[in-house]
Amino acid sequence: MSKININVIIKSNGEEIEENYLALKNNNKIIYQEKDCKTTINLDEFKIKRENDDYLLEMDFLPDKETKGKYLLKKENSLIDLTILTDYLIMEDNLIILKYNVTTTNQDVIFKIKI
User: Fold this and answer.
1) Contact, 77 vs 71, CB < 8 A?
2) What angle do CA 57, 58, 60 make, to 5 degrees?
3) CA nearest 55: which of 29, 74, 42?
């Protein structure tokens, strides 16, 4: 695994968050630590996993397809099934752009990573 610097931009429901992180990257995964959340992105199947002490969020993405995800509230041991509609996924050498809608909560998200 090599260490890389990444810039992550998340736009959701009118808010935009931009942060820089030191990440680990191998051929098919990018792993980085946010303030209190570990994020793992599987580039082969394009899956995102976010986890901390309170929750586990797993989402799969396929362009123009509806997929399933899960949101586990650990302390309550409560599992919420999510439905995700991926508008598009662009993967280039130094840029990933993902636009999706969590139809379960009607949340539009644009997720960008610049390497």
Assistant:
1) no
2) 145
3) 74
CATH of the domain at 95: 2.40.128.20
* Chain segment 27-80, per-residue pLDDT in tens: 899 999 998 999 999 999 999 999 999 999 999 999 999 999 999 999 999 999
Structural domain of residue 88, as residue ranges?
A: 2-114
d(CA 42, CA 89): 13
CA angle 4, 86, 113 (to 5 degrees): 15
When divided into structural domains, the chain yields a total of: 1
How much is the pTM?
A: 0.92
64 touches 77 (CB < 8 A): no
Distances (CA, A) of 71 to 56, 82, 93, 104: 6, 7, 30, 11
